[in-house]
Specification:
Elements: E1 2-3, E2 6-7, E3 12-14, E4 18-23, E5 26-33, E6 42-47, E7 53-59, H1 67-80
Antiparallel strand pairs: 1-2, 3-4, 4-5, 5-7, 6-7
Length: 84
C-alpha cells in the first residue's frame, strides 16, 4: 500500500505534513493537521504553531488504516505542499 507516493513499509517524510516508519509496535508516524483530533490511534496531540497541531500515531493493524485515517493523511499532505 502506498501513502504520499511511497511504500508504507519504508520510512518516509511527505513534505512537511507527515512522516512514517514501521516498527515492532506497528506503523508509527506523525501528521500535522489544522485542528486537534481525538482518536485512540493518536498517541500524542500538541500545538505545533498557531495554525497547526502535531499528531503522533501508531497503527497496529491494517484495519486501522481506514477512510478517516486516510483523510487525515490527505489533509496533512496538502498542508505539507502549502495547499491548506
Amino acid at each position: 500500500m502506498t501513502i504520499c507516493g511511497g511504500d508504507l513499509r519504508r520510512p518516509s517524510r511527505c513534505s512537511l505534513g507527515s512522516s512514517r516508519r514501521v516498527s515492532g509496535e506497528g506503523l508509527r508516524g506523525h501528521l500535522n493537521l489544522p485542528d486537534p483530533v481525538d482518536d485512540p490511534r493518536l498517541t500524542k496531540v500538541e500545538p505545533l504553531t498557531r495554525k497547526l497541531w502535531f499528531h503522533r500515531f501508531v497503527l497496529n493493524s491494517p484495519a486501522e488504516l481506514d477512510e478517516t485515517f486516510l483523510g487525515w493523511v490527505h489533509q496533512a499532505t496538502m498542508i505539507g505542499q502549502g495547499q491548506s
